[in-house]
Amino acid sequence: MIRDHIEKRFPGEHQNTVAVRRYLTTACENLVNRGLADPKFVSELASGSNQKFWACVSEALIADRLRDKQFGTRNTLGKGPDFLVMEGNRRIWIEVVCPEPANIPTNWLNPPSGSVIQLPHEEILLRWTSAIKTKVEALIGSSDGKQTGYINSGLIAPNDAYVIAVNGCMLRGGRFPALFGISQFPYAAEAVFPIGPYQLRIDRETLEVIDRGHQHRPYVLNKNGAKVPAYTFLDPCFNRISAIWAVDLNGGSAIGNREPMVVVHNPNATNPVPLEFLPADDEYVTMDDGGELVFSKA
């Protein structure tokens, strides 16, 4: 059933199509055969919903990237985060989300040939903040009390780490990954730290640059003009989030395309994840420099 549905999604016999199709099929089948898939995985993959398809594929591709890790034993599949991996005797939970491109301009997602398209950076960032918020509430519960959360339900223990893996593949501008925002840092960083665009301050009289740096942006305005917080990792309420694992995976690596991955670590995490534990091209950390927080690559 998995193979048949992926063939319908990616029809044709071009060698690139065949390679991507084979890779996605293998990743999905391995997830099921290893006993790591949610009981609804196959039915949702084949449901016809584009969102559910890529949510399932995201889980399979994340699991494939974790193939060298030891997966922990779980009491019940389908309850709690998507994956449990072990670092020695320590448990690290990984929750996967693939934000759909709501309110993203069509000409960005499917750009006309030869045209110049403006980067909808705020719209994309809002998709990241929304996706992360959803998985934060899955962990600690919702502010209205309607969602209990994994911690309060006892699914996640006090010493367990919790990583949110966000696959931004549905937010791409055409064929190109869109993992980095207007600040030149990952959207994942802009969503959890108040990092805005890079700016220069210029003296009006001398026209010399007198200061430079990133804007302080603690909020992003949504389409209704409401302020959406963008400082999650500076709020102690969210110290149980260990890191954001930001990826852009759609199977393109099977034909040599770049599928970037970065990890943004929470400097205030109760249970941090070690550097180099998660597969990534780069990792970002925050250091205290004389009372100032400095955000940079590790």
Descriptive notes:
By secondary structure, the chain is α/β, with parallel strands linked by helices. Helix content is 26%, strand content 23%. The chain has two domains: 1-52, no CATH class; 66-297, no CATH class. It starts with a helix and ends with a strand.
Helix amount: 25-40%
Q: Return residue spans where pLDDT drops below 50 for at least 5 consecutive residues.
A: none
Tell me the number of helical segments per DSSP (H or I, 4 or more residues long).
Answer: 7
N-to-C order of helices and strands: HHHHEEEHHEHEEEEEEEE
| Strand proportion | 15-25%
Oligomer: single chain
Q: How many domains, as an integer?
A: 2
Task: List descriptors.
8-stranded mixed β-sheet; 298 residues; 23% strand; two-stranded antiparallel ribbon
Outline of the structure:
The chain is an alpha/beta fold and 298 residues long. It has helices at residues 2-9, 15-33, 41-45, 50-65, 106-109, 121-140, 187-192, and strands at 70-71, 83-87, 90-97, 161-167, 195-202, 209-216, 219-221, 227-229, 243-247, 261-265, 282-289, 292-297. The protein has two domains: 1-52, no CATH class; 66-297, no CATH class.
